Amino acid sequence: MFGIDGSEFLVILIVALVVVGPKDLPKMLRTIGQWAGKARAMADQFKRSFDDMARQSELDELRSEVNKLKTQASKPMTDSDYKAIGIEFPASPLGNIEDVGAAPPKLDPPASAAAPAAAAPASSPATHSNSTV
């Protein structure tokens, strides 16, 4: 403790007992203990605040790295990116697509606004059933 040997500590206690007196020695030791406790509490608080600042700076660094990765991930891949992972990207990617199945049906153009809206269709299901009988 502070580089003081046991014999030196004993001498300090005897001198304190003689100088302060046996009646006031417990009060003085209690006061010294309170000061030491306050100093220890202040040192602990300083250490906690320093650790909090260090932790916050680490979190800020991690947050900036994550944001950088998010922005890089949202960018489209370039030809050099494909080459870096071993994929050759064709110059005309749509040229390799084969026609599979039929083409989608073509819809009739919409009726013009000038045509009457109440016009009946040319054929109805009732006329087809009568004409076949």
What's the helix and strand layout?
Layout: H1 6-20, H2 25-74, H3 79-84, H4 125-132
Quick structural summary:
This protein is mostly helical. The protein has helices at about 5-20, 25-75, 80-85, 125-130.
Q: What features would you describe in this structure?
A:
By secondary structure, the chain is an all-alpha fold. The protein has a domain of 61 residues. The protein contains four helices and no strands. The chain is rod-shaped.
Please describe the structure with a list of short key phrases separated by commas or semicolons.
single chain, 133 residues, mainly alpha, 4 helices, 59% helix, rod-shaped
The biggest sheet, with number of strands, parallel, antiparallel or mixed sense and barrel status, is:
none
Strand content: under 5%
N- and C-termini, Cα separation? 120 Å
Q: Residue-averaged pLDDT, rounded?
A: 78
Q: Mind telling me the C-alpha Rg?
A: 46 Å
